[in-house]
Design goal:
With about 425 residues, the protein is α/β, with parallel strands linked by helices. Helix content is about 40%, strand content about 15%. It has a 7-stranded parallel β-sheet with strand order 3-2-1-4-5-8-9, sandwiched between helices.
Length: about 425
C-alpha cells in the first residue's frame, strides 16, 4: 500500500503524520509526506519518504498563526501562500500519483482535488473538531447544546467558497466539474471519507452520530518514546535537582510584536511570583535572558525529557504539545493564539486539568492576570485531574488505531 500525506502547517501538523508513517512502514507499507523543506530532517529521521512542496514553513507560521486574529486573517494567509507557490497543484498531482490513499488536513484540502483527478481515495486529518456535534465546538464556548451544533453552520460553505475562488479554474482546466457552494469534502464518488482526529478521547469524546468512518484515535506518537537520549548541560541538571520542581514555560516559534510583549509580561509575572521556572521563549531580549536561582532559560529540548522533570506547563495549547503535557500528568495553563489552541485550553480547564485559558487575541493579558493564573496553576487543585487525564491518555495507542483503520478502509475498496 502507498499512502501520501499532504501537510501545510507547523511542526505540530507534520510530526504526527511522521509518527503514523513510521508505524505504516513497520507494517510493510510505503508512506510519504509532501510538505515544506524545513521538515525534511524530521520526516526522514522517522524513516518516512519526504516530498518537497514549495511552501515556506516560516511563512505558514507567520500567516496562519502569528498574524491570526479572525477567520478573514486565516483566509488571507491561505491566499498569500497560494500566490507564493502558483504550481502547488501540479506538485501535488505529481506527488500523489500511484498512491492508494491521500491524507490531508484543513490547510491541505487542495489535495482532495488532486486525488479526485487521479481517482484516489482520501482521508481527512483534523486537530480540532470539524464535524458538527452538540458536544463541543471550536467556535463556541458552550457545551452539549443546540447552540453548539449551530456554531458549525456556515463552515462547509466558507470552505467551499474559498475552494471556488482558488481552484475552479484549475478544476475546469483538468475536466473536473466546478466546485459549488453545496459541494462536499466529506465524500468522494459516493463514499464517505475516512476521517481522523489524532487527539485524546479524554478531551474530545467522539459523537456516536458521526459514524464509523470518523475516528478519535488518541495522539499519534509512539508510546515507548522517552527523552533518555538527551544529554542535558550540567547547569540544567543542577537547576532540575534543586529542592523545588520548576514549571516549564514554552512559547514555540511564532513571532510578532504582540507575542514578544506577552513573553516579557510572562517573565515579569514569574519574577514577581517567585515561581521556579524553565523558560523557552525566543522573543525575550538577550539582556533579560539571565539564569538565576529561580529562572532558567533553555533552547531546544525534547518535551519527552523535560515534561518528566517539571510540575506543570504553560504553552500556547497546540494539540501535540498539550497532549504530551497531559500524558505526563502535568497541570496545564494554555495561552492560545489561534485555531485549535483555544479549544484545547478550554477542554483542559473543563476536565479540571488546568486554569481557564488566557486568550490573547481580543486583548493581551496583563501581568497581574498572568500572575493569578500561574499561582492558580501551581496551587495543587489541578494535580488530581491532570493525573487522571494521564491515565486515560496512556491507555490509548493512536498510531495503531489509525493504521488499523487505514488498512481496513483501503481493503474495502
Amino acid at each position: 500500500m502507498v499512502i501520501t500525506a499532504v501537510a501545510v502547517g507547523t511542526r505540530g501538523d507534520v510530526n504526527p503524520l511522521a509518527e503514523l508513517g513510521e508505524e505504516m512502514i513497520k507494517r510493510g507499507h510505503d508512506f510519504r509526506i509532501l510538505t515544506s523543506e524545513a521538515f525534511h530532517p524530521l520526516i526522514e529521521g522517522k524513516g518516512v519518504t519526504f516530498l518537497k512542496l514549495d511552501t515556506d514553513a516560516d511563512h505558514v507560521m507567520q500567516y496562519l498563526v502569528a498574524d491570526y486574529k479572525t477567520s478573514i486573517d486565516f483566509i488571507k494567509g491561505m491566499f498569500r501562500l497560494k500566490k507564493e507557490n502558483p504550481g502547488f497543484m501540479e506538485q501535488t498531482v505529481s506527488a500523489i500519483r500511484g498512491s492508494d490513499l491521500v491524507m490531508y488536513g484543513t490547510c491541505g484540502a487542495f489535495a482532495y482535488h488532486a486525488a479526485e483527478l487521479l481517482k484516489i481515495p482520501c482521508a481527512r486529518v483534523f486537530y480540532s473538531p470539524m464535524d458538527p456535534t452538540r458536544q463541543y465546538s471550536l467556535y463556541s464556548d458552550d457545551y452539549d447544546s443546540e447552540k453548539v451544533l449551530k456554531s458549525y453552520d456556515g463552515l462547509p460553505e466558507g470552505m467551499n467558497l474559498m475552494t471556488m475562488i482558488a481552484l475552479n479554474k484549475w478544476r475546469v482546466k483538468n475536466s473536473l466539474t466546478k466546485w459549488r457552494i453545496k459541494s462536499s469534502y466529506k465524500e468522494m464518488e459516493g463514499r464517505k471519507l475516512l476521517t481522523f482526529y489524532p487527539t485524546s478521547r479524554v478531551l474530545m469524546k467522539p459523537d456516536p452520530a458521526w459514524g464509523d468512518h470518523i475516528h478519535v484515535t488518541g495522539y499519534w506518537y509512539h508510546p515507548d518514546e522517552t527523552g533518555d537520549e538527551y544529554q542535558p548541560q550540567e547547569d540544567l541538571l543542577r537547576f532540575l535537582n534543586s529542592d523545588e520542581k520548576p514549571i516549564f514555560v514554552a512559547f514555540g516559534k511564532a513571532e510578532s510584536e504582540e507575542l514578544a510583549e506577552l513573553q516579557i509580561r510572562v517573565l515579569q509575572a514569574l519574577k514577581e511570583t517567585g515561581i521556579h521556572a524553565i523558560i523557552q521563549a525566543d522573543q525575550i531580549p538577550n539582556t533579560d535572558r539571565v539564569n538565576t536561582e529561580r529562572l532558567y532559560f533553555i533552547g531546544n529540548v525534547p518535551y519527552s525529557y523535560i515534561f518528566g522533570k517539571v510540575r506543570a506547563v504553560v504553552h500556547h495549547g497546540g494539540n501535540t504539545t498539550n497532549g504530551l503535557g497531559l500524558r505526563a500528568g502535568l497541570p496545564t495553563l494554555v495561552i492560545p493564539l489561534a485555531l485549535d489552541q483555544y479549544f484545547y485550553g478550554r477542554m483542559d480547564h473543563r476536565i479540571g486539568a488546568g486554569p481557564a485559558p488566557l486568550y490573547i487575541r481580543k486583548r493581551l493579558c496583563t501581568v497581574d492576570e498572568i500572575k493569578a493564573s500561574l499561582n492558580d496553576l501551581i496551587s495543587g487543585k489541578y494535580d488530581k485531574e491532570a493525573h487522571e487525564a494521564s491515565k486515560g491518555i496512556l491507555e490509548e495507542n493512536g498510531v495503531k488505531e489509525a493504521a488499523d483503520a487505514i488498512e481496513a478502509y483501503i481493503n474495502k475498496v
